[in-house]
Amino acid sequence: MPNDAGIWETVHAERHRLVRDLTGLSEDRWSVPALVPGWSVHDVLAHLVDSAVTTRRAFWSQMVAARFDFDRVNERGVARHRAADPRATLEAFRAVADRTDTPPGPRATRLVEAYVHGEDIRRPLGIRATYPVEPVMTALDYMIRTGAGFGGGRERVAGLRLEPADADGARGEGSPVRGPALALLLAASGRRAGLADLTGSGVALLDERL
């Protein structure tokens, strides 16, 4: 598992890569629906800006103001950072890409955010990306041991044996689900987008839970 410095180095690199991928995107493409229900790719980018500048103290202040409604906190964050011109939102993201502020939680959550939200944006736009397997597995390990109440995916993968095709070591016990680590991470995060890349008798149960 990467240490904190290694995680931040990876997160910063992924943020800058996303900026490069979105530079020059035509105006009409910013409104394409993301993998996050109800959000456009522009909304997800605004959320990434918000997350990059949110400190632990600010997070708890926002939670109190939102009466501890996490979805409301996210929606307000998007509204704060979603500029009228998507290119301005992209420039804002570029400006905060190297920050190490973070809401409460293990550093692995920053990897989950970088990879899952990166795919929330890229896949609907038809942008293909590959990711280093080790930090993807760190993100997956966090998701499968963390309950849904804390943003994890433990309940989604309960009773399943996740077998990454590109990394060593299965996770969990039960019906097998095989495929790339990224596809397993997306499924554990509640996205159906990677299901086509998965095989095994546990896929049907996983699909029912998404």
TrEMBL record:
Pfam families: MDMPI_N. Residues 11-101 form the Mycothiol-dependent maleylpyruvate isomerase metal-binding domain. GO terms for molecular function: metal ion binding. InterPro entries: DinB/YfiT-like (IPR034660), Maleyloyr_isom (IPR017517), MDMPI_metal-binding (IPR024344). This is Uncharacterized protein (TIGR03083 family). It comes from Isoptericola jiangsuensis.
